[in-house]
Write a structure and sequence with these properties.
The protein is mainly α and 387 residues long. The chain contains 14 helices and 5 strands.
């Protein structure tokens, strides 16, 4: 780990957009339409999100549009979109629904609704004057039920048992313990961690700062305490050699992290529930949520730890020694966690982070302590702690 900063998505997006809009295999009429769309969408994203310029989150959205529009253009055999007929749209729609249009891996497209809602019935086809035809054709469509894949603690421990690199161990434990997505974890720096001692167990633990700039837009900026002693031990080992001044803790990008996980999965044989599929990074997040539900956390408390929007006040009845009672059992899917109707509120601390190590849902803010010199004195305007 040398602390090299990950590349910004803006440059990658601009290069990809330029290549897409100048692709000689796309007819000139469609290149002109696509150029008009991206000028509109960039302006829209800046205004909707209150930004002076597009950021990484915007670029990720725009890159998704490049992929979808490239696919749709291929499905219509590069015919100018302004010349499409109802029969053309009907053919593509039926081929998608009946599985004749397949992905590169030979499987039918599962996210068909995203194509219907973001391309066919939205601005791209509106610019071509065909959104009305698309709405007439796509009168009946159903979303395939989404199966939530998750990992049990037993499978997770089998997974980490075959990993030898301390930095890789830390990344896996943070994904399981904190429950954020892999892109956010890869963006963490040394300054995002504050060491403290749990006043109930006497063990070292860490507060992990999750600022808005490193999160998906739909998630709350917050600070979470580590629950597992293994996470703290790997942080103790890795942090002293981590770069200062906002250098990334993990030098590798997503591809390297995905390759590492795939190798560990192949070696350990760890699989996800409920169908025994190979583990993905996102399965650790849902597995953490399942595990905490089984441990007695309420749905509201788990949603708060996942960074879901806050709606109403709830109080926790969990004992202060909850970290010692996390069960090692197989848990059920957590599709219900997406429901944001019943969620825990948050307190915003403006002066310092509470080091009183109560359960995450009932931390208190009136007893503060100085942090050690190795941890930066945070300004925590963005930290939200569930109460």
């Amino acid at each position: 780990m040398n602390g090299k900063m990950a590349p910004d998505l803006r440059g990658y997006y601009e290069r990809t957009k330029q290549a897409f809009l100048s692709d000689p295999d796309i007819c000139p009429e469609n290149r002109e339409l696509f150029t008009e769309f991206f000028a509109f969408e960039e302006h829209k994203l800046k205004r909707v999100n209150g930004l002076p310029d597009i950021d990484n989150g915007c670029c990720k959205t725009l890159l998704g549009y490049i992929t979808r529009m490239s696919n749709v253009n291929l499905w219509f055999q590069n015919k100018p979109w302004r010349d499409l007929t109802k029969e053309d749209i009907q053919r593509v729609y039926d081929d998608l629904e009946e599985g004749r249009i397949k992905r590169r891996d030979g499987q039918p497209f599962q996210d068909r609704s995203s194509y219907y809602n973001k391309i066919f019935k939205s601005k791209p086809f509106r610019l071509a004057g065909k959104d009305g035809l698309a709405k007439d054709v796509i009168e009946f469509s159903t979303n395939s039920p989404k199966i939530v894949r998750y990992v049990t603690e037993e499978s997770f421990r089998r997974l980490v048992s075959v990993v030898r690199n301390p930095v890789h161990q830390l990344l896996l434990w943070l994904a399981w313990d904190i429950g954020e997505n892999i892109q956010t974890l890869l963006a963490l720096t040394r300054e995002d961690f504050i060491s403290q001692v749990n006043r109930h167990s006497g063990e070292r633990e860490y507060i992990v700062n999750l600022p808005a700039s490193k999160l998906k837009r739909s998630r709350l900026s917050r600070s979470e305490v580590t629950l597992y002693p293994e996470t703290a031990r790997w942080l103790d080992l890795v942090l002293p050699s981590a770069p200062l001044n906002d250098g990334y803790l993990f030098n590798s990008g997503y591809r390297a992290a995905a390759k590492m996980l795939a190798k560990a999965v192949a070696t350990s044989g760890a699989t996800s529930m409920p169908h025994g599929d190979p583990l993905r990074w996102k399965d650790l997040r849902s597995g953490m949520a399942c595990h905490l539900l089984r441990a007695g956390w309420t749905r509201d408390e788990v949603n708060a730890r996942l960074g879901q929007p806050i709606r109403r006040d709830t109080r926790s009845t969990r004992p202060a020694n909850h970290r010692k009672s996390l069960p090692n059992q197989t848990l059920g899917p957590v599709a219900e966690l997406a429901d944001a109707a019943d969620l825990t509120p948050a307190w915003r601390l403006n002066e310092s982070i509470c080091c009183q190590s109560c359960p995450p849902c009932c931390w208190i803010s009136n007893q503060l302590t100085d942090h050690s010199a190795q941890s930066r004195d945070f300004s925590v305007e963005s930290v939200q702690i569930a109460c």
